[in-house]
Amino acid sequence: SSSSSETFDADGTDDTGTGNNRLVQFVADNKVLLNALLRSNQNLLEKGLKSMVKMPKCRPFLDFDVKRQWFKTQVRRLRQQANRRHGSLRLNLRRKYVFEDSFHAFNHRSAEELRGRLQITFVDEEGVDAGGLSREFFAILAKEMFNPNYALFMSTEDGCTFQPNPNSSINIDHLRYFRFVGRIVGKAVVDGFLLDAHFTRSLYKHMLGIKPTHNDMQAIDPDYYKNLQMILQHNLEDIGLELTFSTEDHSFGRSRTIDLIPNGRNIIVTEQRKEEYVNLVCQHRMTTAIEKQIKAYLEGFHDMVDSDLISIFNAKELELLISGMPDIDIDDLKRNTNYNGYRPADREIEWFWSIMFSLSRSEKAAFLQFVTGSAKVPLAGFSELQGMRGVQQFSINKVNGPQGALMSAHTCFNALDLPVYKSEEEMKEKLLYAISEGAGGFLFA
Q1: How far apart are CA 92 and CA 211, in angstroms?
Q2: Tell me: the pLDDT tens digits for 211-263?
Q3: Of 353, 378, 370, nearest to 415 (Cα)?
Q4: What is the pLDDT of residue 129?
Q5: pLDDT tens, position by position, 335-358
Q6: Which position among 58, 160, 282, 412 bears the catalytic label?
Q7: What percentage of the chain carries pLDDT values higher than 70?
Q8: Maximum CA extent, the chain
């Protein structure tokens, strides 16, 4: 299949389409078996099962650990080539100025040189870098890149995730810094170091070459997202809204109108075109307003990581690749859970916790992303879980819908809507479906 797999279109269809659809169907039907095979023999992705990586439509059926292993193998090869050509990348840094010193050191080197094995030493300190100093180096940079003094990133409402600051130009060198941060994130990913840095879902999508959707706005500005949902769900006249295809920008104390389409400030948004308006206004907030920043960041990131290699992951998996699989203490989560409509002794709640304890580590991570929007575990545990209005502990709400309905999440409030099910098995099946398929299905309160 390796020769034919090269002829697939980007969306996984060839001219006939049928052969491919049969392959995708086969992969879907035999997902568990194929992943088990790949765990025992990674080389199959280079040979007979190559199309599972080559065809975008097959990739969702590969488990995260299988993808990560394939990715590691590919980048290890590239790193060995770079090591042979350029040797190690030695950096001698002043501990107080790690960010600036690294910025200058990275700026003067080509992408190829930066691929070499990292060797960190700190000025006036004894210490051989056997990995520990490199780990410390990345830990310092992961904190510093979000330092408000550099004005590069701004945090979202809950303070857990970051996205490029549209006003970063207050820092004259901001685009060179974005390229540097992109290289740091890429270098950490290919060298296998984890960063305690969590970005917005829309930025992960940009890193994968996927266009963000208006649902990604929820994590960035929940109140704004709520208004957009209102526009989509109600008749504009009924809610008395008169909109034009433009938006206001209030940066640096000045207010200016930005057209979303040519002459947009003079074009009224009609009921027929309101979806287009919502898409455009979100595209402006998540892409256009920070286009230069994203471009510089991606330039740096792709200096280190080939876009063909990284595109095997989805946005949630990319977060886990960069920041690692969190250690989720289910006992701690259970102690810090509030119930609305259920009581702790209800059989549904007992089933729920029994299921949570039975999940694998990656399933627990997917659950955390599903209900909170990020895989970040608070340092002080779940008693300190942040929502859009400060501390907002995890809560489970009883839903009076049809029995066996799908569960849904409200990430701004760290809340799970849990319908009534007839058995623990059914609940588990629905939960696993929600955290895998629900990857895009955030609802709004």
Answers
A1: 39
A2: 999 888 888 888 888 899 999 999 988 888 889 999 998 877 888 999 999 99
A3: 370
A4: 67
A5: 999 999 999 999 999 999 999 999
A6: 412
A7: 93
A8: 71
Q: Which two tokens stand for residue 93?
A: 């840094």
* 3-state per-residue secondary structure call for the chain: CHHHHCCCCCCCCCCCCHHHHHHHHHHHHCHHHHHHHHHHCHHHHCCCCCHHHHCCCCHHHCCHHHHHHHHHHHHHHHHHHHHHHHCCEEEEECHHHHHHHHHHHHHCCCHHHHCCCEEEEECCCCCCCCCHHHHHHHHHHHHHCCCHHHCCEEECCCCCCEEECCCHHHCCCHHHHHHHHHHHHHHHHHHCCCCCCCECHHHHHHHHCCCCCHHHHHHHCHHHHHHHHHHHHCCCCCCCCCCECEEEECHHHCCEEEECCCCHHHCECCHHHHHHHHHHHHHHHHCHHHHHHHHHHHHHHHHHCCHHHHCCCCHHHHHHHHHCCCCCCHHHHHHCEEEECCCCCCHHHHHHHHHHHHCCHHHHHHHHHHHHCCCCCCCCCHHHCEECCEECCEEEEECCCCCCCCCEEEHHHCEEEECCCCCHHHHHHHHHHHHHHHHHCCCCC
User: Are the CB atoms for 416 and 395 separated by under 8 Å?
Assistant: yes
Q: What are phi and psi of 254, to 5 degrees?
A: -110, 150
* Angstrom distance (rounded) from CA 21 to CA 27: 10
Radius of gyration of the chain from Cα atoms? 24
Q: How far apart, in whole angstroms, are the C-alpha atoms of residue 110 and residue 304? A: 10
Cα–Cα distance, 427 to 407 (Å, whole number) = 9
Known catalytic membership, residue 412? yes
Instruction: Identify whether the C-beta of residue 38 lies closer than 8 Å to the C-beta of residue 31.
Output: no
